[in-house]
Amino acid sequence: MVFSVFFPPAAAVQAAKVPVVYYLSGLTCTDDNFIQKAGAQRHAAELGLALVAPDTSPRGLGIEGEDDSWDFGTGAGFYVDATADKWKRYRMYSYILRELPQVLRTLPGLDLDNASICGHSMGGHGALVLALKNPGAFKSVSAFAPICNPTQVPWGQKAFAGYLGDSWQEAGKAYDATELVKAYTGPQLPVLMDTGGDDEFLKTQLHPWAFEEAAKGKLQVTSRMNEGYDHSYFTIASFVSDHLDFHARYLLASGPRI
Amino acid sequence: MVFSVFFPPAAAVQAAKVPVVYYLSGLTCTDDNFIQKAGAQRHAAELGLALVAPDTSPRGLGIEGEDDSWDFGTGAGFYVDATADKWKRYRMYSYILRELPQVLRTLPGLDLDNASICGHSMGGHGALVLALKNPGAFKSVSAFAPICNPTQVPWGQKAFAGYLGDSWQEAGKAYDATELVKAYTGPQLPVLMDTGGDDEFLKTQLHPWAFEEAAKGKLQVTSRMNEGYDHSYFTIASFVSDHLDFHARYLLASGPRI
């Protein structure tokens, strides 16, 4: 598995450890898209935050049909642990939660016990699910155009039916942020979401209103609808500093380290 | 010819016209690289500057061998007007100076009489040459890792020999920033250059010191050597706001329009 890490200058100070923001990419992406297109590094450098960008699926496993679709298989792991026998080596949920941090602990400079998580589209879904299923594991969670209610939309239904097998409708609830937030009983979890009013997938795949409604009385959710913005990395680049500032509030007890 | 324009929000104000910063890309690039990878739009939006990113050559002319090299022909127009018969339709110098602005004048919101120019590598060469050959046409010029003395380095020699024909060694001086600055007699032209100390092309292709030496007593040049930075768009992303701030000083008489 390939991943990218951005170390801010603060991480080069001997004995210093910097907080970590995980960024989970969307369908078709690799670890490169965020690093090359979001323009996040300069502000992360100013704040003293490390950025970790994993890939979106295993690659090259040789599973029949793994490269047939852009929204299933390679580049589309959906951040679940597959239970369908054919796809059982697709375990992106466990990878992000446990295996990747274990690898990161072998690198100097990262304070892995002080982490937040964000993501885009399929990765926004992944960030919300990982944070909601593991209370306390992440100090805050944010998402750009997340797939908020995957059991109810085509992308999620296709992925869950493939990865979770015949009982996906029930099993999928365990990976559906809107279902998870209804049952959430953990500590307060700050949530920031930005979605574009001109996002071509807003009404068919994203459904931020479903999550907002389900989170009422459970979590403090800031969900912004940004008119004129679409599903692209230009939108992410427009708001990524807001998201880093948001996470910095919870990760940096003593304020930004410039 | 394809080009990209970023209009800042200030350009949407009725009757407002915003200054223009041209960005010329390097070898192998299209109009897309800067727009997708440099992360310049947000700061340009804050300053109220439009960004214009042209392509780096004509494409698909059907000239024999036009796609054979990554450093000559397609994607490598070198911002000259070719005189060699075979390449006479390669006229990137005139395109940037005259044809592109003519097209841009048909779009609303751009103050084309208030423009600056910058570029990267081959595009840094192009920006310096266009500014030095046309005193007063650009309020300021800046470059990331420019090819400063192309008649003396392999990239420039290959390009000039191909585009300018047998007499390229003499003809090339008219497209060599180090030669041009020696003879410059125009009004003061502010110059900012950023080059990476770890740029893999620094000693073989860029030669910023040649330009710095030639510009002494002619122009006020700020040329920074940034240790640890390479030839990539990550370097551009690190310094692009500095360059926009620099141009804004000369383009915005009344200061940034936020």
TrEMBL record, chains A, B:
GO BP annotations listed: formaldehyde catabolic process
Compartments reported by the entry: Cytoplasm
Single GO MF descriptor: carboxylic ester hydrolase activity
Keyword hit for Transferase: no
Gene3D superfamilies in alphabetical order: alpha/beta hydrolase (3.40.50.1820)
Keywords from the UniProt entry: Cytoplasm, Hydrolase, Serine esterase
Keyword Hydrolase: yes
Enzyme class: hydrolase
Entry EC number(s): 3.1.2.12
Family: Belongs to the esterase D family.
PANTHER family for this protein: S-FORMYLGLUTATHIONE HYDROLASE
Protein name in the entry: S-formylglutathione hydrolase
Protein's organism: Chlorella sorokiniana
